[in-house]
Structures are given as structure tokens and as C-alpha cells.
Amino acid sequence: MPRNLLPEDQLHPALRDELGRFHADVIDEVKSAIARHPVVVVGMKQNPFPRRARRLLDRIGTQYTYLEYGSYLSQWKRRLALKMWSGWPTFPMIFVNGVLIGGAADLERLVEHGQFVALLAAPRAPA
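User: That's the sequence. What structure does it adopt?
Assistant: C-alpha cells below.
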């Protein structure tokens, strides 16, 4: 099912430009990491779920790149830009070979069912 997004033609042209620039540096940083690394975890301080995902990856011996954006008390607009870009509402955001797989619980499910290794071995998604 496609994501439910407000169509571009229903955004005023000036707003389109503003949305396109909204913390574009953060989005570019994450995109760059995703292009360079097979596994990327995007998280924040104080949230136990990014830590849970990283511990699982450590336990199964999978290397990953971790990007952290603030805490509950800081950098919320930078995290909002990532949520708007990805469509994923929570942290962590975990990418495997360029594909967003979800958060910590999603990673746990994939590992438990033996699907994570297959995702890691699959060809990289086109950029």
C-alpha cells in the first residue's frame, strides 16, 4: 500500500521549497551514510530502543553505522525532518542495504525469523 502523502500539487509552491530545505543537511547526512554502509541505525539519546537495536546488532556480530540526533530535550526539528523524509514515526530508523526495515522490534522480528541475514546478503536497493 502506498504511503498517504499530501500531493505536491496541493502544496503552495513557496511551501514546497521550504519543505525541501527543512533540515536538508540532516537528510543528506543520513542518505550519505545509507549509500556508504550496509547497515545504518539512526537514533537519539535517552531513547532505549536505538540502544536495544544496537545491542542486538552487536550480539549477532553485524557492523553498523550509528547516527544520533539529540535527545528528548534537543534537536527535535532535525528528527522531525527525518520522520517527514522517511515516513517512519519513531526512532530508531534502521536501514539495511538502503531499505528502511523499521525500528528495534522490526529488527528483532527479522533476526528471530532468520530474515535479517538474507536482507543483509541481498543486493543494495537502488538509490
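Strands lie at 39-43, 65-68, 93-96, 99-102.
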